[in-house]
Amino acid sequence: MWQSISYYAALAVESLIGVFGIRLYEEARYDVIDRIGDRIEIRHYAPRLAAEVDLTVPGEAGRSEAFKLLFAYIAGANRASVSGNDRIAMTVPVEVSGKERLAMTVPVQTSETNGALKMRFFLPAKYSRENAPKPLNPRVRLVTTSGETIAILRFSGSGHDFAERQTELIACLVGLRWQPSGEPYTLNYDAPFTLPFLRRNEAAVAAVETP
After folding, report:
1. Which one, 22, 69, 146, 193, has the greatest CB density within 10 A?
2. Which residues, in sequence order, are bridge partners of residue 186?
3. Alpha carbon 35 to chain centroid, angstroms
4. pTM value surpassing 0.70
5. Tell me, what's the pLDDT at 39?
6. In sequence order, which ranges of 19-96 are alpha helices (DSSP H)?
7. Alpha carbon distance 23, 13 (integer Å)
8. Which residues have C-beta within 8 Å of that of residue 147, sequence separation ≥ 6?
9. Is 28 in contact with 20 (CB distance < 8 Å)?
10. Cross-strand bridge partners of residue 206
11. To the nearest whole percent, how much of the chain has pLDDT over 70?
12. pLDDT band at residue 189, thresholds of 50, 70 and 90?
């Protein structure tokens, strides 16, 4: 009981300071291999483990449903793959009755293509496919992303202009040695209640280097 109280108290504190754009979450590591102007970076990420949801509900309704499913997974809707009281890295790490409450990480990745929506939460680096808790909801699955190089365009704001920022990113790459490879998507680092001018958002796309 006290572990559960501690877990959600920590979430409340993180949410409160998150209003001001302060992030306590683990961020996936990457190497910056190039910069284009002040706002575009070319990054390389190593393979990562993520919890993923695919939905056919587009727009804000789909994003809200996907977020709830993924948050339920990290908050305990899972089956621990290891026995004993293994505490999971967070402000207050816990495991209760075979269920693990996982650390929230950033960014959250969201893409929409032809009415289909995909959202990913990346798991903390300590997890692998072998030791990560298994989702109880069949709509949530664990996936391992391959190492990738991406171009990102950073911006702030409420996020209602995601599509426009993705288009801007693609336009900025025209004629450069880094070319888009695939569909653009968004990376979100803050909660919806964070003050818009303090939010960190990124439009992103896989990128390849051309001769």
Report:
1. 69
2. 110, 203
3. 22
4. yes
5. 87
6. 59-74
7. 11
8. 44, 45, 46, 47
9. no
10. 150
11. 78
12. confident
pLDDT at 82 over 90: no
Domains of the chain: 2-209 (3.20.80.10)
Please report the beta strands in the chain, taking only residues with DSSP state E, as ranges in sequence order.
Answer: 26-27, 30-36, 40-45, 48-55, 78-79, 94-96, 99-101, 105-106, 108-113, 116-122, 134-135, 140-145, 148-155, 178-180, 185-188, 201-209
d(CA 16, CA 193): 9
Hunting for tokens 């790490």 — which residue is that?
A: 93
* Cα separation, 160 vs 112, whole angstroms: 14
Q: What is the pLDDT of residues 110-133, one digit of tens each?
A: 998 877 899 999 898 889 999 999
Tokens of 204: 């992103």
Q: Give the C-alpha distances (Å, rounded to integers) separating 22 from 199, 203, 207.
A: 9, 20, 29
Neighbours of 36 (CB within 10 A): 15
Taking a C-beta distance cutoff of 8 angstroms, is the pair 174, 134 a contact? no
Element (H, E) at 12: helix 2-18
**Prior bond to 58 cis, omega within 30?**
no
| Residue 108 contacts residue 123 (beta carbons within 8 Å) | no
Long-range contacts, stretch 87-94, CB < 8 angstroms, 24+ apart: 88/124, 89/26, 89/124, 89/126, 90/7, 90/10, 91/10, 91/13, 91/14, 91/24, 92/3, 92/6, 92/7, 92/9, 92/10, 94/3, 94/4, 94/6, 94/7
Q: Which of 103, 136, 135 is nearest to 122 (CA)?
A: 103
H/E stretch holding 170 reads: helix 162-173
